[in-house]
């Protein structure tokens, strides 16, 4: 499926690198909601693999940040599932390891996509007053970094509240021309430049109710286009 031989780039670790020629798994090998049977091309990253990788990211975060207090800042809507699963695994480590990572959780909502295209206007919708972040160690949790514009804008916004430290966890980073402006500190997977859905990633609000990360089919794009 992937290798991690080209594992370092910039400040962050690319995580599991999924190559451009990865075809994904046939849908028939997995279960998924019947209502999406015409709308998907393949299972790109199975849910179980996402869970296993998230468990390791939680351990890396604990190793680096353990014994500090952190505020987890979940980037909605797409980040809710990854954030919940990551927090759950950090909680497990809190119960079972000698280190401890006290956490509080806050939310911010951003929107920049229409259909499968990034738009210039990025809206910060929720929790605009993040003064609780002042002087705190902040872990931003985002499900996907594509061009990196969203992350850049968000980092500028959060820096304005003068936190002590900011780290970013991103489940997916896309390989796009010129690369994203900034790489997350913790990366689950580096993926080709394809539009993916599921695991709370949407296409015009559809597919959040799908466990695996999948590639949307052309007919799916047409069906849910706005
Ligand atoms: P960026 O600003 O180009 O990095 O875009 C990041 C945002 O675009 C994410 O927070 C997602 O909301 C959305 N996005 C980018 N690529 C995808 C995708 O493949 N599937 C679903 N949403 C995506």
From TrEMBL:
InterPro entries: HGPRT, Hxn_phspho_trans, PRTase-like, PRTase_dom
Listed pathway(s): Purine metabolism; IMP biosynthesis via salvage pathway; IMP from hypoxanthine: step 1/1
Keywords annotated in UniProt: Cytoplasm, Glycosyltransferase, Magnesium, Metal-binding, Nucleotide-binding, Purine salvage, Transferase
A GO molecular-function descriptor: hypoxanthine phosphoribosyltransferase activity
Enzyme category, top tier: transferase
Needed co-factor(s): Mg(2+)
Protein name per Swiss-Prot or TrEMBL: Hypoxanthine phosphoribosyltransferase
Organism from which the protein derives: Chanos chanos (Milkfish)
């Amino acid at each position: 499926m992937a290798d991690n031989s080209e594992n370092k780039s910039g400040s962050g670790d690319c995580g599991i690198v999924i190559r451009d020629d990865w075809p994904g798994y046939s849908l028939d090998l997995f279960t998924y909601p019947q209502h999406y049977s015409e709308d998907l091309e393949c299972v790109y990253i199975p849910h179980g693999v996402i869970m296993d990788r998230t468990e390791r990211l939680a351990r890396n975060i604990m190793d680096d940040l353990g014994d500090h207090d952190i505020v987890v800042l979940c980037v909605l809507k797409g980040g809710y599932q990854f954030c919940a699963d990551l927090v759950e695994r950090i909680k497990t480590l809190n119960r079972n390891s000698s280190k401890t990572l006290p956490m509080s959780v806050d939310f911010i909502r951003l929107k920049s996509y229409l259909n499968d295209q990034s738009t210039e206007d990025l809206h910060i919708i929720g929790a605009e007053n993040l003064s609780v972040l002042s002087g705190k160690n902040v872990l931003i949790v985002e499900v996907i970094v594509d061009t990196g514009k969203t992350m850049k804008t968000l980092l500028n916004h959060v820096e304005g509240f003068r936190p002590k430290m900011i780290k970013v966890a991103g489940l997916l980073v896309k390989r796009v021309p010129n690369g994203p402006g900034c790489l997350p500190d913790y990366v689950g997977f580096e993926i080709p430049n394809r539009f993916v859905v599921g695991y709370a990633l949407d296409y015009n609000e559809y597919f959040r109710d799908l466990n695996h990360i999948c590639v949307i089919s052309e007919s799916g794009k047409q069906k849910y286009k706005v």
